[in-house]
Amino acid sequence: MNMPQRKSGSTADQDSPEDRLGRFATIWSRAIFPSTATSLTRPEFEKHLLPLARRLSDALHAWPFDPSPAHRVGADLVAAHCTDPDALSHTLGVVDSYLVLYCGSSAVSAELTPEEIRARCARLQHAIAAGFSKALRERTLTEQEAIARSALSARSAAESALHVTETRFRAVFEDAAIGIGIADLDGNILEVNDALLQMFGGLDHHVRSRKVNEWVHPEDAPQVWGLHAELVRGEREHYRVEKPYYRNDGTVLWTNLTVSLLRDAEGRPQYQLALMEDTTERRLLNLRLRYEATHDALTGLPNRTLFFERLDKALAAKNGTRFGLCYLDLDGFKAINDSLGHSAGDRLLVEVADRLQSCATASGEMVARLGGDEFVALTTGDDTAHEVEELAARILSALATPIRIDGRELTVRGSIGVVEGPSGMQSPAEVLRSADITMYRAKAAGGNRFQLADAEADARAITRHGLTTALPTALERGEFFIEYQPLVHLGDGSVHGAEALVRWSHPQHGVLGPDRFISLAEHTGLIVPLGRWVLEESVRQARGWQQRHPAHHDGGPLRINVNLSPTQLYHPGLVADTVAVLERTGLDPGALCLEVTESALIGADDDLLKPLRQLADMGVDIALDDFGTGYSNLANLRRLPVSVLKLDRSFTQSMQQLPADPVDLKIVEGIVALAHSLQLAVTVEGVETGTQAEQLRDLGCDTAQGWYYARPGAPDRIHSLSLADAV
Question: What is the pTM of this model?
Answer without folding.
Answer: 0.50
